[in-house]
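User: As part of a screening pipeline, I want to sanity-check one entry by hand. Below is the sequence and the SMILES for nicotinamide-adenine-dinucleotide. Please return the complex as structure tokens so I can compare it with the automated output.
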Amino acid sequence: MKIAVVGTGYVGLVTGTCFAETGKDIVCVDTNKEKIEALKKGIIPIYEPGLEDMVHRNMKSGRLSFTTSLESCLDEVEAVFCAVGTPPDEDGSADLRYMLEVARTIGRNLNKYVLVVIKSTVPVGTSEKVRKAIQEELDKRGVDITFDIASNPEFLKEGNAINDFMNPDRVVVGVDSERAQTIMTKLYKPFMLNNFRVIFMDIPSSEMTKYAANSMLATRISFMNEIANLCERVGADINMVRSGIGSDTRIGRKFLYAGIGYGGSCFPKDVKALIKTGEQNGYQMQVLEAVENVNEKQKGLLFDKLSSIFDGHLEGKTIAIWGLSFKPETDDMREAPALVLIDKLLDAGCNVRVYDPIAMEECERKIGDSVYYASDLYDAADGANALMLLTEWKEFRSPVWNKVADKMKQKVVLDGRNIYDRKEMEESGFIYRCIGY
Ligand SMILES: NC(=O)c1ccc[n+]([C@@H]2O[C@H](COP(=O)([O-])OP(=O)(O)OC[C@H]3O[C@@H](n4cnc5c(N)ncnc54)[C@H](O)[C@@H]3O)[C@@H](O)[C@H]2O)c1
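Assistant: Here is the complex for your manual check:
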């Protein structure tokens, strides 16, 4: 069975590689020539644990190849997975231009049946738009070729993507034909042997499931951040509250961590897009509007705490930042809270020294030389008036605090992820601030 995966980003590259691992022949397609040239040489454009080895292994076995030309492989494949980006448009709705470009390329070049599978996160109704765009191109050519559409949203987490794809909680598939269901069943059969569930449903429900899942998780984060902010005001401890409610099986322990707001390439844009879908359908998504507002405020919280420690006099202060990516185990900085904070610090006239185990190059690509890129966590702390922990990489969990203190000008730590112990920090002479207690 041969399939094409279009878009070799975080989702497409992982999808293609994992399908190849289960014995399928995969051709990964991307319009970014540099990316494809690098991949052909075995250079992986993103950091994702375990991905590099798996790509190399499957390239060697001949099951995984790369091309910039979708046209050239359409005659050979049974299915085309579309995993191109769907970034937010100016008004917050999902920008479908890449998806529709792929659809038109398929319509212009299709010579036999194919199943088009939409893996990107797209609003309800997009599959129909894709179907229409393909059909319009086929009509222009005056050819009668059947094809099907399936929706197969992806739930992998960056940083754990390989494991999530190979051992998912569930696979959601939206179909409206038996033929499509048969192909999708065949494709996911190797994963089904491990007893996980493929949930078949209609296409609009499948498209909505992805937005509902991400919005629910974002809601939990904003909810806990609100509770944390109230805890600070009433003398409660959010960490205790989290254990207290997380042990209720109706609630569960995951996604209950207070912090500096959610970021990344998915939650912010998907919450915005669902609010927009509501608007376009005459329905106000009030909960999600609040989720977004709370999150925007939360991203500035650590800056406000810093400012109050220094009575608003931040000009000329040196601030160390540990962690840049929006979460550990990824180099992804899309919508990372670190970017908001760095901006605020620079605006306030601070000198900023940053360190991240993986995301330094990505940060430099995004913000250039406006900050100092430190060689390690201690170098970042050198001469700092305050240190901010923004991403909970393992490397930051137990630093040698004496060494940090020796480097710093003032012993001030702002912990945006609640990973340090207040008592220990204060006993070591640090001014310590965290979230929610
Ligand atoms: N990143 C995640 O953790 C994650 C998880 C689940 C779902 N998703 C969704 O999956 C989709 C892809 O996300 P991503 O993070 O992998 O994006 P990405 O930006 O990392 O990659 C998208 C790729 O598509 C390529 N592309 C754009 N137009 C193309 C075209 N016409 N033909 C071929 N390639 C083209 C780009 O060059 C890029 O390499 C999005 O809809 C996203 O919301 C992402």
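Points to compare against the pipeline: The chain has three domains: 2-201, 211-297, 300-433. The pocket of nicotinamide-adenine-dinucleotide is lined by residues 6-12, 29-32, 35, 83-86, 98, 101-102, 120-121, 154, 156, 158, 265-266 (CB under 6 Å).
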